[in-house]
Specification:
12 strands; alpha/beta; four-stranded antiparallel β-sheet
């Protein structure tokens, strides 16, 4: 291994190599001839540097959330490799993975559904801190109260139940829960999509501040391209279980190469007539992840599709510095 490659790997907090996650569907009996599967993830590869925010965008059902959960092994990957800080954690045993969970946390889209309605917020957070032995037992209460204050809540909220909070406050609790173990990587899975626009901006600013103060790395999953542009350093576009484009934020928004990326960006509302993009309307529906089209899986909706696109799947290649795309005609 060259010195340059070794240095690159040391800088990467996370490396994902050919990650797949297939879910079996239908009758999977012993005499079943064909085992049908939903190809939620079908070969995803990327790296994530320390302190970076990687935005993941795409239509509903493209595999964004599945990818985030598979990386944390909340869904066990079907194949592929997950390397965290130079160590392969793809198939480590549960006890060893439990130790890694201190560093790898997630903020879910629905804060109410992810919080225990029978426990007070203080009890919930204290249990996490005690389980991972973050601080001595005598300091747990003060530690949790400081966390609540840090995310914009009051110490008095320690004794409240989740139903006593607003949606934005519950998401702050979820963020405090993720911070309990002093993590290095947080997966934000549609963390602001269920909130009012005014509350969204507050939560986004909170996440940005916490990133600086705690030296955090984010995998930010969202369908809102405007939000992703605001918070991300790089942006990856997914379609039907595959990554079709990956580039630095400015490069991707200024110079999108994949037809799907162009269509997504053209849908962003703009008040600036000079910068307004020509609207690209995609025809047809997203194909089923059970019966994925041959060749390029976007060819059924692509205005540029040719016979080559229908027959041959394009490789995910670097066409310019740090700009990757999977398209025959990029």
């Amino acid at each position: 291994m060259s010195l340059q490659l070794e240095k690159s790997q040391q800088q990467n907090l996370l490396e994902v190599q050919n990650l797949t996650k297939h879910f079996p569907v239908g009758d999977q009996g012993f005499f079943s001839k064909e085992k049908q599967v939903v190809k939620a993830l079908d070969g995803i590869s990327f790296s994530l540097k320390k302190g970076e925010t990687l935005g993941i965008v795409g239509e509903s059902g493209c595999g964004k959330s599945t990818m985030g959960r598979a990386i944390l092994r909340l869904h066990e990957p079907s194949s592929g490799t997950i390397i965290y800080e130079g160590k392969d954690i793809t198939r480590v045993k549960k006890k060893e993975m439990r130790d890694n969970r201190k560093d790898l946390q997630i903020v879910f889209q629905d804060p109410y559904g992810s919080l225990n309605p029978r426990m007070t917020v203080g009890t919930m957070l204290s249990e996490i801190v005690e389980t991972h032995k973050i601080v001595p037992k005598k300091d747990v209460y003060d530690y949790v109260c400081n966390l609540l204050v840090e995310v914009g809540l009051n110490e008095q909220y320690y004794h409240r139940f989740p139903h006593e909070f607003s949606g934005g406050q519950r998401q702050r609790v979820s963020i405090a829960r993720a911070l309990c173990t002093n993590p290095k990587l947080i997966v934000c899975d549609e963390a602001v999509s269920a909130l009012d626009v005014s509350v969204q901006s507050q939560i986004l600013n909170l996440l940005q501040r916490l990133k600086k103060e705690h030296q955090l790395t984010y995998l930010f999953i969202s369908h809102d391209l405007s939000v992703v542009k605001h918070v991300s350093d790089r942006v990856a576009v997914m379609y039907l279980g595959k990554m079709v484009e990956l580039a630095d934020k400015k490069e991707l928004y200024d110079n999108p190469l994949h037809p799907y990326t162009r269509a997504l960006l053209s849908a962003i509302p703009s008040t600036n007539e000079e910068k307004k993009r020509e609207r690209v309307i995609l025809t047809g529906d997203v194909p089923s992840p059970i019966n994925v089209p041959s060749g390029c899986r976007f060819h059924t909706r692509c205005p540029l599709a040719t016979d080559k696109c229908r027959a041959e799947e394009p490789a995910f290649t670097e066409v310019s510095e740090n700009h990757f795309v999977a398209c025959h005609y990029a």
